[in-house]
Amino acid sequence: MTSSLNPDAIIEAVESVINRSDFEPLHAPQFEGNEWKYVKDCLDTGWVSSVGKYVDLFEKMLADYTGTKHAIAVVNGTAALHVSLKLAGVVSDDEVILPAFTFIATANAISYCGAVPHFADIEFSTLGLDPEKLARYLSEITEMKEEGCFNRITGRRIKAVVPMHTFGHPVDLDPLFEVCVKYRLELIEDAAESLGSYYKGKHTGHWGKLSALSFNGNKIITTGGGGAILTNDTILARQAKHITTTAKIAHAWEFVHDQIGYNYRLPNINAALGCAQLENLPEYIRLKRNLAERYANAFADIQGVKFFKEPPNSQSNYWLNVLILDESCASYRDELLAKTNQCGIMTRPAWRLMHQLDMFSQAPRMDLTNSEALSNRLINIPSSPSIVSRTMEVNNG
Ligand SMILES: *Cc1c(COP(=O)(O)O)cnc(C)c1O
């Protein structure tokens, strides 16, 4: 079957949803709550740096919102991943499995531990790690020893798996968790994109021993830059707080540190922003889910392309909306990217796959057919929550 795709029809469908008068960014932050008030409070009181009440409050609010026992605020999502991997026991020369289809931070954090990223394929229904394909692959290449799971080809231990919830859509966590149990692998969720996304009624981040969030400027809520570690393990939570705050032993005046720690603290002024943003998160998610529904309707009858909908068993935050071109229309991708960006509608292709980057080209990997197919056919379209509030205002006169 050959299908055709008309770029102008796609632009028209996007325009019908976003109703713009101006340049439309991919994802713009919104500061319409208590942001000014809380940040001003930091300036007025002088508490702008690495300690202050907003850090504690932000951590408590994050734990409450996600339903995890502990949240530890850190300076960015990459740092959250680095410390999560370290506390899960990843050491130099271990291998860690991750999707080839991810943002660079996942692979970088593994490298910071001296470990080797090992790339696995994704499935079309979630855009995340394919548990079945991973299980089959591990059964072929690994052998179990007392110290864990070993790659028979490289001789290295495989210590952990880091799934990533792509654009907010949850990975199929239950079967993935089973694979990890069977092969004695630690599960660490890269939940940087999935704050507010649920799998089988539970917030993402619960399946990992530790999980990482990001509050970078383009994420669903932002602290300027920032991140957090989620965990239900009280001992790990205490260690996470300790080593992200220079491993200093609490004392009124003495400086004693009991190991090499990190200065990964989130400043109070950023946490203040985070508290205000988190208060509005339920509203952002309502708006974003509404936006996704509008896109789904607008694209229902457009040829050659499908609007990506949340996987079964999940409720997604729809952080970044996704169009997937039909296989036979993949060649239209670059034209579509050029046309939309030229007319002021910001769109983006998927990330360059990790194994196609110079520094990871020699890293171990499985067959990556799905990742390669999807990365050539995927386009992100404007996803700001303000699109819906703006168009509601228009509709209400
Ligand atoms: C944003 C993001 C991170 C973390 O990024 P930071 O900019 O360090 O906060 C990690 N993984 C993925 C998949 C991301 O999208």
UniProtKB/TrEMBL annotation:
Keywords: Aminotransferase, Pyridoxal phosphate, Transferase
Gene Ontology MF terms: pyridoxal phosphate binding; transaminase activity
Residues that bear N6-(pyridoxal phosphate)lysine: 219
Source organism, top-level taxon: Bacteria
Cofactor(s) needed for function: pyridoxal 5'-phosphate
Record PANTHER family: BLR5990 PROTEIN, TRANSAMINASE
Highest classification ranks of the organism: Bacteria, Bacillati, Bacillota, Bacilli, Bacillales
Pfam hit, one: DegT_DnrJ_EryC1
Protein name (Swiss-Prot/TrEMBL): LegC family aminotransferase
Active site residues according to the UniProt entry: 219 (proton acceptor)
Family listed: Belongs to the DegT/DnrJ/EryC1 family.
